[in-house]
Amino acid sequence: MFSTQRTDGGSIIHLVSPSPLRTLRLLFEVTLLFAVLLVVGCASVEKTANWTVEEFHAKARAHLDAGEWEQAIDYYHQFERRYPYGKYAEQSQLEVIYAYYRNREPELAISSADQFILLYPTHPRIDYAYYLKALSIFQSSTSLLDRLSRVDPSRRDPGPARESFEAFRALVTLFPQSSYARNARQRMAEILDLIAQHEINIGRYYLRRGAHVAALNRAKYVIEHYPDVSAVEDALGIMVAVYKKMGFDTLLDDTVRILQQSYPDSIYLLPGSK
Question: What integer pLDDT is reported at residue 20 of this predicted model?
Answer without folding.
Answer: 58
